[in-house]
């Protein structure tokens, strides 16, 4: 339940103790109850305040039980990975375009005045064919020599769930901690063919990996006008899966404007960085995605 400050609610019950108990519950949720023992007493009260009407329950008239943000757009990628060898810069060494196609959806469920649950999914994918290697490097235990023609695929999926608690909340502003858990899938494939000296070479090594992630941080939302809200989130965690070390940093800063009660547009700057140690058999390195996003914002 969510209520604007000083929203008055009439409680009519001929049982005085029951009316007081209901009034305490309403007051705990931010309402201002006024108790009456009968409908006649309510109608006879000429000094009664203006009572809250059935509506979205928010000062700006917008619903806030459920929210969905979604879009398909491009971000900037910076990926340095290793697999049975040294670090390979996928943009510089393999010619992948820094622009990456991204699908992103973020859902919010306000389960109480101070409590929210969020579920977020992001997908990234890139591919580059016929890039001539300019330096030697080791990938998958084999040496990829300069002069070979390489085809590269890279992708990742990030799924996360979060709980938010508003330490402070009023009509237009809230702030509090957030804690979450998620999973990251990372894939990379490098194929190369060509002739080095008198020898023909054909190499093809791919690797997929998945890792449980988590996050601890905070968030804040502030309504600038009845239709414009500014938002900020920050999440970070460092974990040690097995004999490896990993960290995840995720933050965003943006704003939504609602042209209609249930629909609007949002813009944000998003930064996500995931690092994980590699070893002889696993895919590791650093994956960074950052940039501006424009997306559809829905409220229910």
Q: How confident overall, as mean pLDDT?
A: 88
Query: How is the largest sheet built, in terms of strand order?
Result: 3-5-6-9-11-12-13-14-15-16
How many H/I helices? 2
Give the overall shape. elongated
Helical amount among residues, as a percent range? under 10%
H/E element string? EHEHEEEEEEEEEEEEEE
Strand content: over 45%
Q: What Rg, in angstroms, do the CA atoms define? A: 27 Å
Number of strands: 16
* Ends apart, CA distance between termini: 14 Å
Q: Which residues form runs of ≥5 with pLDDT under 50?
A: 1-5
The largest β sheet comes out as:
10 strands, antiparallel, barrel
Q: Structural class per helix/strand content?
A: mainly beta
Fold and architecture overview:
Residues 1-5 have low confidence and may be disordered. This protein has 300 residues and is mostly beta strands. It has 2 helices and 16 strands. The chain starts with 6 loop residues before the first strand and ends with a strand. Helices cover 6% and strands 64% of the residues. It has helices spanning 16-28, 39-44; strands at residues 7-12, 31-36, 66-82, 88-89, 99-110, 115-132, 137-139, 142-144, 149-165, 168-169, 173-196, 199-223, 228-239, 246-260, 263-276, 284-299. The chain is elongated. The strands form 3 sheets. Strands 3-5-6-9-11-12-13-14-15-16 form a 10-stranded antiparallel beta barrel. Strands 1-2 form a two-stranded parallel sheet.
Q: What features would you highlight for this structure?
A:
300 residues; mainly beta; ten-stranded antiparallel beta barrel; two-stranded parallel sheet; 6% helix; disordered N terminus
């Amino acid at each position: 339940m969510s209520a604007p400050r000083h929203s008055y609610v009439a409680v009519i019950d001929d049982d005085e103790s029951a009316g007081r108990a209901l009034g305490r519950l309403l007051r705990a949720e931010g309402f201002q109850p006024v108790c009456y023992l009968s409908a006649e007493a309510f109608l006879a009260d000429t000094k009664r305040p203006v009572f809250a009407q059935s509506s979205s329950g928010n000062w700006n008239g917008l619903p806030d039980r459920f929210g969905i943000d979604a879009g398909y757009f491009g971000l900037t990628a910076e990926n340095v990975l290793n697999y049975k060898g040294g670090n390979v810069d996928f943009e510089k060494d393999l010619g992948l375009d820094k622009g990456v196609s991204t699908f992103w959806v973020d859902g919010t469920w306000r389960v109480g005045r101070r409590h929210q649950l969020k579920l977020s999914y992001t997908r990234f994918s890139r591919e580059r064919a016929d890039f001539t290697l300019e330096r030697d490097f080791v990938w998958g235990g084999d040496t990829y020599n300069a002069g070979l023609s390489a085809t590269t695929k890279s992708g990742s999926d990030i799924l996360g769930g979060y709980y938010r608690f508003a330490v402070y909340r009023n009509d237009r502003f809230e702030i509090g901690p957030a804690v979450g858990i998620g999973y990251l899938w990372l894939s990379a494939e490098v194929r190369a063919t060509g002739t080095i000296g008198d020898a023909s070479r054909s190499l093809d090594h791919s690797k997929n990996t998945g890792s449980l992630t988590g996050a601890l941080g905070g968030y804040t939302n502030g309504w600038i006008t009845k239709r414009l809200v500014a938002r900020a989130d920050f999440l970070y965690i460092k974990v040690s899966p097995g004999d490896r070390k990993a960290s995840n940093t995720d933050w965003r800063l943006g704003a939504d404007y609602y042209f209609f009660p249930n629909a609007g547009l949002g813009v944000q700057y998003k930064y996500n960085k995931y690092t994980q140690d590699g070893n002889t058999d696993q895919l590791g390195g650093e994956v960074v995605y950052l940039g501006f996003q424009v997306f559809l914002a829905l409220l229910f």
